[in-house]
Design brief:
Length: about 230
């Protein structure tokens, strides 16, 4: 499972020209930074909600189904931002090449509604316990729909890019995560929902539970039933 992505935010003008700020979500079981490719590929047109980007060769095969499940009409209400609409709906990242040449494809999708970003990740064979073991500070156990789950938080990184090619970085805001077992018996991997913001407000952790309860049962790989 990876939880790294880059999401463009509003720019400001200064002596160096226009500056664009991005928040890099860094955390989870494997900390990988994908880079800036594909940021904002599916902007909404005429104030209408954005459709999911068509999958690219660098997207994981799970991406289309994950994006379709997350990018649902009632997502703004579930998120607690009923007046917003999805402005970006895309893959959460691209492939990462390990030193031995093998590649891992990030199985995720993410959407943006106003200043709020939501991401869904298929952790494949990583259990809730596996993911929680990497969390610092420690993850807190919970349950969702009668199956094991855990919550944890980490920080984003703010990166500012200017037209002269220079960039600066510093601490960003908080990202909140909810990891839920695919199977009520805690086997078979997990799904993860992440929420973070492009402004200074704290993300709403309760929104993760509302989204999880409605979205996860519709995702391919979810095992029906309770423990």
């Amino acid at each position: 499972m990876t939880d790294d992505s880059v999401v463009a935010d509003t720019g400001t003008k200064g002596a160096a020209g226009q500056v664009v700020t991005a928040l890099v979500l860094v955390g989870g079981a494997i900390a990988l930074v994908w880079g800036l490719g594909g940021v904002g590929d599916s902007p909404a047109r005429d104030e209408k909600p954005a459709a999911c980007n068509a999958p690219k060769e660098t997207d994981a095969p799970e991406y289309p189904a994950l994006c379709a499940a997350l990018n649902r009409p009632d997502l703004p209400t579930l998120l607690g931002t009923p007046t917003e609409h999805v402005s970006v709906a895309q893959s959460g990242g691209g492939p990462f090449t390990f030193p031995d040449g093998t590649k891992m494809y990030d199985a995720s999708a993410q959407v943006q509604l106003g200043p709020v970003n939501v991401r869904i990740t298929d952790n494949r064979n990583l259990s809730v316990q596996d993911v929680a073991s990497f969390a610092k500070p420690p993850a807190l156990p919970t349950s969702v729909l009668g199956r094991p789950a855990a919550t944890y938080a980490d920080h984003t990184m703010a990166i500012a890019f200017s037209t002269n090619g220079k960039s600066t970085s510093g601490p960003g805001g908080i990202a909140r995560h909810l990891v839920v077992a695919k199977d009520p018996k805690a086997g078979g991997g997990s799904f993860e929902l992440t929420i973070w913001r492009q402004d200074t407000a704290l993300p709403d952790e309760t929104a993760l539970f509302r989204i999880a309860e409605q979205v996860l049962p519709t995702v391919r790989g979810w095992v029906a039933g309770t423990a």
